[in-house]
Amino acid sequence: MTLSVKSLDAGYGKLAILHEVSLEVAAGEIVTVVGSNGAGKTTLLRAVNGLIRPTGGTVTLDGTELTGRPTEKMASLGLTHVPENRLCFPTLSVRDNLSLGAWSKGGKGDLDAVLELFPRLKPRLGQAAGTLSGGEQQMVAIGRGMMAAPKAIMLDEPSIGLAPKVVAEIMKVLTELRSRGLAVLLVEQNVRASFGIADRAVVMQRGRVVLEGTPAELVELPEVRNAYLGGAAA
Ligand code: ATP
Fold first, then answer.
1. Residue 9's CATH number
2. Residue 59 dihedral angles phi and psi, to the nearest 5°
3. Closest residue by CA, ligand 1 atom 20
4. From atom 11 of ligand 1, which residue's Cα is the shortest distance away?
């Protein structure tokens, strides 16, 4: 498995949030993590990416130990994290925002490959990122992560606040990343959208993994349909 999380414990100070969380994402696979507000999804990505220090368990990428390594080392180790709320630098140009993603490669990222993924950014390279639409800013945030040519990418709710058409566009890009061989770990509240593209899904509750399976298996479960799909079949 490319990205492997085993029995991860983490929290904030004395507050334990994650309890023995395990999951794996292979190269060329999309795994989605769903769960209600406060389930610990964002905390999981932070702990994997070293933004908070795990108190137990391990994280490995292609067999290399990442557990507790500093966040700024993660990109050069092959792991990219696209955090919630896109976090573009609004006064910097699109080009400069993308270039920031390549610092771990000495500033030399594959801009052409990123623009192939997001052709809409090409005519906007000189535009201040703060003037882009929400969907375009999400593209910059993902594109910035891709500049370091990662093996694995983790995304925290990339669909948040976006119109359905733009959500579909972002989901399609994630399938393109999968076909380029990346391991994709997708945290989403928009379960309908993430189940539409994921190979496997993990459900978290109160900091624990409580269910896992393919989206097709999970939508058969009334508790999943009621909690995350408004009761309807997907
Ligand atoms: P959401 O879908 O609402 O973003 P989530 O599943 O991503 O939720 P987390 O953001 O990981 O959940 O939060 C899990 C728990 O950790 C919550 O109880 C939250 O209050 C707590 N928490 C998050 N950040 C901090 C922090 N910096 N300090 C203390 N507690 C925190």
1. 3.40.50.300
2. -130, 125
3. 38
4. 40
pLDDT over 90 at 106, yes or no: no
What is the tens place of the pLDDT at every residue in 108-154? 778 999 999 999 999 999 999 999 999 999 999 999 999 999 999 99
Residue type (1 letter), 142? I
> Would you say residue 234 has pLDDT above 70?
no
Ligand 1 — pocket residues by CB below 6 A? 12, 15, 17, 35, 37-43, 189
Q: 227 phi and psi, to 5 degrees?
A: -80, -35
Could you tell me if 64 and 131 lie in one domain? no
102 — pLDDT class (breaks 50, 70, 90): confident
- Indicate the top mutation candidate among 8, 9, 12, 157 to test ligand 1's pocket, ranked by most ligand atoms within 8 A of CB: 12
Sort strands 200-205 and 56-61 into parallel, antiparallel or unpaired: unpaired
Residue-range definition of the domain harbouring residue 163 = 1-78+151-234
The CA distance from 133 to 162, in Å, is 9
